[in-house]
Amino acid sequence: MRILCLAALFASACAFTTNVPSVGERVHNVAASGSAHRNRRATIVMDGKANAIRDRITSVKNTRKITMAMKLVAAAKVRRAQDAVLATRPFSETLQSVFGGLIQRLDGESVDLPLLTQREVKKVTLCVVTGDRGLCGGYNSYMIRKAEARFKELTDSGVEVDMVLVGKKGIKYFTRRNYPIRKKFETGQNPDAKQALAISEELLNTFLSGESDAIELLYTKFLSLIASSPSVRTLVPFAASDITQKGDEVFQLTSESGEFSVERKELQVAEPQEFPNDMIFEQDPLQIVNSILPLYVNGQVLRTLQESVASELAARMQSMQSASDNAGELAKQLSLQYNRARQAAVTQEILEIVSGATALEG
Predict the structure, then answer these.
(1) 8 Å CB contact between 327 and 60
(2) CA-angle at 33, arms to 30 and 39, nearest 5°
(3) What percent of the chain has pLDDT over 70?
(4) How many angstroms separate the CA atoms of 136 and 134, rounded?
(5) DSSP track, 101-139
(6) Residue 136 annotated in active site
(7) b vs e for 24-57, b when ≥16 Cβ sit within 10 Å of the residue's Cβ?
(8) I want to staple 270 with a disulfide (CB 3.0 to 4.6 A). Which of 87, 93, 265, 289 is the partner?
(9) pLDDT tens-place string over residues 165-191
């Protein structure tokens, strides 16, 4: 009976492997048999639960590859947004320098220009900048909540409000809820001067025609790869000091030891351009200033779009990194469950064999 039990155990062990000679078969080549033994793979009979876990592990690992690829794509686009900001700096500096020089040339004269004139606020136009896509954490929801809060604050104080929407997510949200919308724009993830010009022209025409007494810009200020801040600023009207006395800052994406980071650099105010006292302007300096102001507004809108896109991409990088980390942790947990299920299946097989042998002995 003991011999029968040992034979049953040996047959069970052979069931878990392939390329093994059956009991009683004569082995002619010992060396070849040893090589086959080293190269053979285990064939374990699994139940449906273990197979489902194994399939899920494969799915989670594939998902992790996708999220990591999306993170790297977002990082490349952040660099492109960084290059776009740096490319606009020469124009912004020259515009600031010329404007400062003209203001000094006016030498304290009263500057009575429409874009610099404050008036009683009875109606405000909110320009809300959101993204066109999701999978970027709370980027869009934070901006939408900020816009809703500002809209409610103004309406509660008795000020009429309408909206200019930039970005598909904001358009979809506010259109469904019947907010007063003046204009809609879609810019994508690579805003350019042409798109900024269309938006700034709509805002300037709204203000200069008297349809609105102030234009407020709601956008996401880019702070770092892990932080951004929904911000509100008055675009028009503004003061001349906003151009001549405010500096600028640029950001640069860097990487060290495989980790991304952002370095911010504050830039000093451009020095006012000096015009000779005997220089004769073909046009009055006041008219030149009046023609420069729309260019300044257009530059501010473009810079806002670029900063919002950089914030969206940074949020997507962080979101995809979190998704990749969660997928890796889930894969580890599923692997542990799979190994336990496989061990349980093997143990069950052995127990059935032992139980059968015991019953035969009895």
Answers:
(1) yes
(2) 145
(3) 76
(4) 5
(5) HHHHHHTT-----GGG-----SEEEEEEE--S---STTH
(6) yes
(7) eeeeeeeeeeeeeeeeeeeeeebeeebeebbeeb
(8) 93
(9) 999 999 999 999 999 999 999 888 888
What is the C-alpha separation between 15 and 33, in angstroms, rounded? 17
Nearest to 75 by CA among 315, 236, 300, 276: 315
The two three-digit tokens of residue 358, written as one number: 């015991």
Amino acid of residue 169 = K
Q: Which helix (H) or strand (E) holds 226?
A: none
Cis peptide bond upstream of 285, omega within 30:
no
**Digit-coded pLDDT (tens) for 216-262:** 999 998 877 777 888 899 998 887 676 666 666 666 666 666 566 66
Q: How far apart are CA 305 and CA 166, in angstroms?
A: 9
CA 154/CA 123 separation, integer angstroms: 9
User: In sequence order, what are the beta bridge partners of 124?
Assistant: 161, 214
Q: Residues in the chain, how many?
A: 362
What is the C-alpha to C-alpha distance for residues 67 and 59, in angstroms, rounded to an integer?
A: 13
Cα–Cα distance measured from residue 362 to residue 358, given in angstroms and rounded to the nearest whole number: 6
The label of the residue with tokens 């729309």 reads 294
101 touches 93 (CB < 8 A) = no
β-bridge partners, 220:
230
**Rounded Cα–Cα distance for residues 315 and 71 (Å):** 10
Structure tokens at 300: 């501010």
> So what's the pLDDT on residue 19?
45
| Amino acid at position 337, single letter | Q
The average pLDDT across 90-104 equals: 79
Beta carbons of 238 and 216 less than 8 angstroms apart: no
Q: What is the pTM of this model?
A: 0.73
Query: Among residues 76, 82, 90, which one has the least CA distance to residue 250?
Result: 82
